[in-house]
Amino acid sequence: MVQATRADEPAITVFTNGNVYTLSKEGPKAEAIAVKDHRIVFVGSSADAKSKYADTRFVDLQGKTVVPGFTDAHCHIFGIGEREMSLNLEGTNTLDDFLAKVEQRARETPGNQWIVGRGWIETFWKPPEFPTRQDLEKIAPGRSIYLTRADGHAAVASTAVLRTAGITRETPDPFGGRILKDTSGEPTGMLIDHAQELVEKAIPAPTRAEQEQAFLLGVQREVGLGWCEIQNAGSRKDEIDIIRSAFAANKIRLRIYNAVFGPGPDADWFLGTGPSINEYGHRFTQRTIKVIFDGALGSRGAALLKPYSDRPDTSGFLREKPEELRPMFRKALERGIQLETHAIGDRANRLILDLYEEAFKAVPQDKRRKPAEGTDVRWRVEHAQNLDRADLPRFAKLGVIASMQPSHAISDLFFAPSRLGMERLAGAYAWKSLLKSGAIVCGGSDAPVERGEPMIEFYAAVARKSIKGESGEGWHPEQAVTREEALKMFTLWPAYAAFEENDKGTIEVGKLADFTVLSNDIMKIPEPDILKTRCVMTVIGGEIAFQLKD
Question: Can you tell me the mean pLDDT for 216-236?
Answer without folding.
Answer: 97
